[in-house]
Design brief:
Elements (H helix, E strand, L loop, with lengths): L19 H17 L3 H8 L2 H8 L3 H8 L3 H14 L4 E5 L2 E4 H27 L2 H12 L9 H31 L13 H24 L18 H25 L1
Antiparallel strand pairs: 1-2
Helix pairs in contact: 1-2, 1-6, 1-7, 1-10, 2-6, 3-6, 5-6, 7-8, 8-9
Length: 262
């Protein structure tokens, strides 16, 4: 089975059984710890905390590679921009390019932050059912209802957007193969070369959105008011342990940052 970007992979691991709110909060604390890391080395070591989660979730390295492969160019650009544009102590020169010690450290730090955040988000999506993810996000946003925040609608929109990512990728691949069989070419960077793909993809996306809206109306969906749930969310001891470890990671990174700054 081919695994697409953002696709949920059913499983029976302890990570799969965690409350979606715990996983969402864990992702937030994990990202905060990465942002607090003061150097490239500490950012890499902090990011490595996701590795035990990947092992416990039973996700193969090939899965992580498939999630990162479409973004490799973006990651390389981030690294080289930091290396090339940061002034400081020059340690190497390649033609007009001056590589500085500070730029190398900032490049590793930026690369580690983006890299591990993408990995963590991929693990979250792979181990959390989309409906459970929507429920967890809605519960976390519920306090904002006092200030007029439409938490149910926001959670629904985000979940639908994430759910349609693998569907649209699969549809784009199908359309591309069909157009190539008809003699279309996608070589070159001109927009006109991509029109045989873009136009059918947009039409397909609008049709799917219209069909989804009609299905929701046929089932009398009227937003979150008066809505009941088949599964109620409850924190278990494993969820508290998971959150405690995430908070400790933030505390340790913050403590090191304060010591590093002084």
């Amino acid at each position: 089975m081919m695994v697409e970007l953002g696709q949920y992979i059913p499983g029976t691991s302890c990570i799969h059984y965690l409350d979606p709110r715990a996983k969402l909060l864990g992702l937030f604390f994990y990202g905060l710890a990465l942002l607090l890391a003061p150097t490239g080395i500490t950012a890499s070591l902090t990011g490595a905390a996701i590795l035990p989660v990947i092992v416990l979730a039973g996700l193969a390295p090939s899965f992580i590679w498939r999630q990162l492969k479409p973004l490799l160019v973006f990651l390389v650009i981030i690294f080289f921009l930091q290396v090339a544009l940061t002034p400081g102590e020059i340690i190497a020169a390649i033609g007009p390019l001056r590589i500085t010690r500070e730029g190398l450290d900032y490049g590793i730090m930026a690369l580690a932050r983006v890299f591990f955040l993408i990995v963590a988000a991929s693990v979250l999506m792979a181990t959390t059912d989309p409906l459970a993810l929507a429920d967890g996000l809605e519960r976390l946003l519920r306090p904002g209802q006092r200030f007029g925040l439409p938490s149910v609608e926001l959670a629904l929109m985000l979940t639908l957007a994430l759910r349609f990512v693998p569907t649209l990728l699969e549809e784009a691949e199908r359309i591309m193969r069909a157009q190539v069989a008809r003699g279309a070419t996608f070589r070159g960077s001109q927009v006109k070369n991509l029109m045989p793909l873009i136009i059918p993809l947009f039409i397909s996306a609008f049709r799917r959105a219209e069909g989804l809206a009609e299905a929701m109306e046929a089932r009398a969906y009227r937003g979150g008011k008066g809505r009941t749930r088949m599964r109620e969310l409850h924190f278990k001891p494993a969820d508290y342990i998971f959150l405690l470890l995430a908070v400790l990671l933030v505390a340790g990174t913050a403590y090191y940052r304060l010591g590093f700054g002084s």
